[in-house]
Amino acid sequence: MKRTGPLIVLVLVLAVVGAVAGNILGRRSGSDGGGRPVKAIIGSEKKPFFDDPEVRRALSRHGFSVRADPIGSRQMPSRLKGYDFAFPSSTAAAEEVRRNSTPAGDNVVVFSSPLAVATFVRIVDLLQVAKLAARDSGGVWRLDLKALADANRRNLRWTDIPGNTFHQVSRNVLVATTRPDDSNSAAMFAVLLDKATGGDLAATAKLFTDQGAVDSTSAEPFESYLRSGLNYAPMVLVYEAQFVDHAVNAGLTDGQTLVYPTPTLVCRHTIVPLTQTGVEVAKLLATDRDLQRLAAKHGFRTADATLTAPVFSQVRPGDAPLPASIEGAVPDPDYPAQQALLAKLEEKMS
């Protein structure tokens, strides 16, 4: 009995020494979490990228350990305290963050992703019957937003489409989105609808209000699409990167496919550095080839197309190719123009 106490103490000492040594070795080898702590507030669609162990190790090798908190891009300006950088999903959203903060450096575009619509092969077939979608000359599926707005104006329902024997839901044909006042993806979709309808604010507002209650971040509806399929919604607004990431790293099931709105818009995911550490990490994310390769692995389009091409070549949803480049995209709206549109839209939706 007298030996028990010293043995327990010895075991505890060895355990503590082992843990400390393991921690030191882990940091030296660039394991997950090693390095200077960095706090980031990010668009939710980038969470899989920052959660990737390869990304964590790459950042650790450069001496950083990034904690990334997801939130809707348009909610960021009021939540910036204590963060080293903000990483919203467009240049307009980044400008809004910049106007509501004291930046430590210039904004940095890290990668981009166009808006797209996650759907299902059988739904695309119905959209084609309803003359809302068609393949372009390259075989890419396109959703005509003007035709969609016109159809919604006359309350076209899924049950009205000839040949619809599998999605017998008496709801209007529309795209499930987040709320424009909360999320960059929905705000940019509003910009596209405004362009497609020639400034018909009532038609744009109706495509949002007909949805009822919606989520606040772009990750939520996409996760519901993956989890519940048609029981959630037949069409869901996403960033192309979300779909490509899922296709490459998890695999497509149940006829999941992707269509591109016409017109579309390329969202440039942009960092606003809020501290000097944020300046350093922003530059690293934008210029380090390994981190850019990992961004491509998660579906984002990088400045170097040779990094994106091997990833995109693996994805052919519904036998439709992904476009090598996005032609004829609507330019990013400037901050004042976007704010003016969203203010009018919010008033119309209330």
Keyword list:
9 strands, alpha/beta, 43% helix, D-Maltodextrin-Binding Protein, domain 2, globular, 3 domains, 350 residues
Structure write-up:
- The structure is a single chain.
- This protein is an alpha/beta fold.
- It has three domains: 30 residues; 126 residues, Periplasmic binding protein-like II (D-Maltodextrin-Binding Protein, domain 2); 178 residues, D-Maltodextrin-Binding Protein, domain 2, CATH 3.40.190.
- A hairpin with a 5-residue loop joins β5 and β6.
- The protein is globular and about 60 Å long.
- The relative contact order is 0.17.
- The N terminus is likely disordered.
Question: What would you give as the CATH superfamily of the largest domain?
Answer: Periplasmic binding protein-like II
Q: How many E strands?
A: 9
Q: Element order, helices and strands?
A: HEHHEEHEHEEHHHHEHEEHHHH
Q: Outline the biggest β-sheet.
A: 9 strands, mixed
